[in-house]
């Protein structure tokens, strides 16, 4: 039994089966892993899904890390919930990724997938209900598990339930594309929580607007107690005499990075070695660095178009700059992601063919999941390009200023959550505007070193203001106090 529980689709460890049949475990990183390390593993439990065959085999053999519980969900149910709903519907809504003349299509097949999403959420709710101490705090993560708070509250009304959204939240006009019954189920699922967290005021505001309704399922209105900044949603489910009024608090916890940890990681010998190799490739040219999952919302194609426009309209940068781009594979089960990855590779090749010379390759693109190379590129960055169409936070925008050795100018999309904290010292861009992005790259490359260093220092301070452990503890304290 545990007094602090975390639930997320992807857990802190994944398994693969070696050729000799033994299991090898790989620990992941990320904000949640270091956040939860603020709590002793004896009192805590992390509930996550078994993602592949290796994980499933670990569950079958009863292999588990202390404090981690993997759920072996039926593979078809899982695929429909994860690929079919979480990544193809909820992710697309929150990031405005639909190609509107054709998508979305909410038909019978969608409703079958939604039933799988519901079953997958129920498996989490039941596992959490079975493992939580009386009055325990449960911190549920992200759009994969939006129905868990409501389900868990029904099973265990004694628990303190939080939910944190790591993505943007779609504004009502976009969110209301969902069929009305599904939209209501989603919102009531979230409103089962005592505390809802978002990375920015923009996303929490969008949630509060979307969660205002008055219909047969109940009523919900934004809640601002007089004289406090505290806010939330006041709601009453159903209309009968038994319908109880509750308040769900909505707050903003902008996740930052742990500067000491990150600098230590970036100065390991293997990163030094990789940095030396990259330096040899780049020579004395300037660098524009980007690091992303190959993800539709990251806007990698328009980033490359802006770089091409820079080389066209400011030919003085030819042979004086290298674009170091890491676009590592993600969600390759989805056809649109495979096609996007291929387009990114093709465009990088086109730019190299158009501008490259015998001793200058304008784009050095890596499509490997290679964190060592990314850290080496961070250290070498003169300019960081972070131009997502929309992004819950975007930690790359916060990591590069902390690690860059010469100080880097940050070209940052107004659609990134990080923009809310970093906009004064970044060069803001509209992610759809190639010309503005190309000009911002030019300004960034031309920025005087002293100004660049000053801005980088302030960016690094803002980026480390709320490191993961504090981020996590703040939410835990809010949950216990609410
Ligand atoms: C986003 C989500 C995370 C997710 C990550 C990687 O940042 O908010 O919950 O883990 O993308 O996506 P994946 O589908 O590979 O877990």
**What shape does the CA trace take?**
globular
Count of alpha/pi helices: 18
Query: For the residues shown, what is the average pLDDT?
Result: 96
Helical fraction equals 40-55%
Unreliably modeled segments: none
The biggest beta sheet reads: 10 strands, mixed
Beta strand count: 18
Look at the helices and sheets and give the structural class: alpha/beta
Question: Which small molecules are bound?
Answer: 6-O-phosphono-alpha-D-glucopyranose
Question: Beta fraction of the residues?
Answer: 15-25%
Radius of gyration: 23 Å
Distance between the termini: 22 Å
What's the arrangement of strands in the largest beta sheet?
5-4-1-6-7-8-12-11-10-9
Q: Identify the quaternary structure here.
A: single chain
Concise overview:
The protein has about 475 residues and is α/β, with parallel strands linked by helices.
Description:
This protein starts with a strand and ends with a helix. Helix content is 44%, strand content 21%. The mean pLDDT is 96. It has 18 helices and 18 strands. The longest helix has 24 residues, at 108-131. Strand 10 and strand 11 (232-237) form a beta hairpin. With 482 residues, the chain is of the alpha/beta class.
Secondary structure elements and their pairing?
Layout: E1 2-7, E2 13-17, E3 23-27, H1 31-36, E4 44-49, H2 53-61, E5 68-71, H3 75-94, H4 108-131, E6 132-141, H5 148-155, E7 160-164, H6 172-175, H7 180-191, E8 195-198, H8 201-210, E9 213-215, E10 218-223, E11 232-237, E12 245-252, H9 259-266, H10 269-282, E13 286-293, H11 300-313, E14 321-328, H12 335-355, E15 363-366, H13 371-380, E16 383-386, H14 396-403, E17 409-413, H15 419-422, E18 427-429, H16 434-446, H17 449-463, H18 468-481
Parallel strand pairs: 1-4, 1-6, 4-5, 6-7, 7-8, 8-12, 13-14, 13-16, 14-15, 16-17, 17-18
Antiparallel strand pairs: 2-3, 9-10, 10-11, 11-12
Helix pairs in contact: 3-4, 4-5, 5-7, 10-13, 11-12, 11-16, 14-17
The structure holds 6-O-phosphono-alpha-D-glucopyranose.
The site of 6-O-phosphono-alpha-D-glucopyranose has 6 residues, from loops.
